[in-house]
C-alpha cells in the first residue's frame, strides 16, 4: 500500500514557489547556485538568495552576539569624571534614569529596543537553529520563528550607538569621558547582529520546517 505523504522531491517542488513580498506574484524559483539571487519577474524585487552553510554561519553569529550582549550589559558603557565625581552608565541604567525622570514611555522604548528585543532575537534564533540542525522541531518552532521575523525591525542598537557618539562629542569638553569595556562589546554586538541578519536565510529554516511537517506550514 502506497503512502499519501509527499516525498522529498515533491516537498522541494512545492516549497520552491514563493510570493513576491512587493507585488504578491506567486512564481517558481529555479535551482540556485551559491550566492545567486532570484528576482521577481514582474517588479524585480529580490525573492531568494542561495547562501551556502547559512544555518551554520547564522548559529555562530547568534552565539557570538549573545556572548557580546552579556558582556555589554555587565560592565559600564561610559564613565564620566568631572569635579572629582565619577558616574558610570550601562544600558539598563539609561532606561532606569529616564524612568526616574518621569519619561516613562521613552524609558520603556529604550528598554525594549536595546535590551529585550535584541535578547529575544539572539536567544530565539539560537533556539530555532539548534532545533532545525538537530531535527527536533516541535509545534512551537514555526510560531516562534514567525514572531522573531516580525520583531526584527525593533532592534535599534545602531540608534543607541549614535546617541552614545553624540554624548561623547557634547560632554568631551566639560568632563573626562572614559570608554568602558561594554562599549567595545556593544560595537561588536552591532556588527554580529548585522552579520546574523545578512547570513540567515529564512527560506532555509522554512524549508526544514515544511519538510518536517509535510508542507503543512
Walk me through this protein's architecture.
- By secondary structure, the protein is of the alpha+beta class.
- The chain folds into 2 domains: 1-50, no CATH class; 53-212, no CATH class.
- Helix content is 58%, strand content 12%.
- It contains 8 helices and 7 strands; from the N terminus they run H-E-E-E-E-H-E-E-H-H-H-H-E-H-H.
- Strands 6-5-7 form a 3-stranded antiparallel beta sheet. Strands 1-2 form a two-stranded antiparallel ribbon. Strands 3-4 form a two-stranded antiparallel ribbon.
- Helix 2 packs antiparallel against helix 4 (104-134) and helix 3 runs antiparallel to helix 4 (104-134).
- The two termini are 26 Å apart.
- Residues 1-14 have low confidence and may be disordered.
Write the layout of secondary structure elements.
Elements: H1 8-15, E1 17-19, E2 26-28, E3 37-39, E4 46-49, H2 54-74, E5 78-82, E6 85-89, H3 91-100, H4 104-134, H5 141-150, H6 157-171, E7 176-179, H7 181-199, H8 202-212
Antiparallel strand pairs: 1-2, 3-4, 5-6, 5-7
Taking Cα atoms only, what radius of gyration do you get, to the nearest Å?
A: 22 Å
Name the poorly predicted regions. 1-14
Q: What kind of oligomer do you see?
A: single chain
- CA-CA gap between termini: 26 Å
Return the domain count. 2
- Approximate shape: elongated
Based on helices, strands and strand pairing, what is the structural class?
alpha+beta
| Strand elements, count | 7
Q: N-to-C SSE series? A: HEEEEHEEHHHHEHH
In which range does the helix fraction lie? 55-70%
Q: In what order do the strands lie side by side in the largest sheet?
A: 6-5-7
User: How is the main sheet built?
Assistant: 3 strands, antiparallel
| Percent in strands | 5-15%
Q: Helix tally?
A: 8
Mean pLDDT: 78
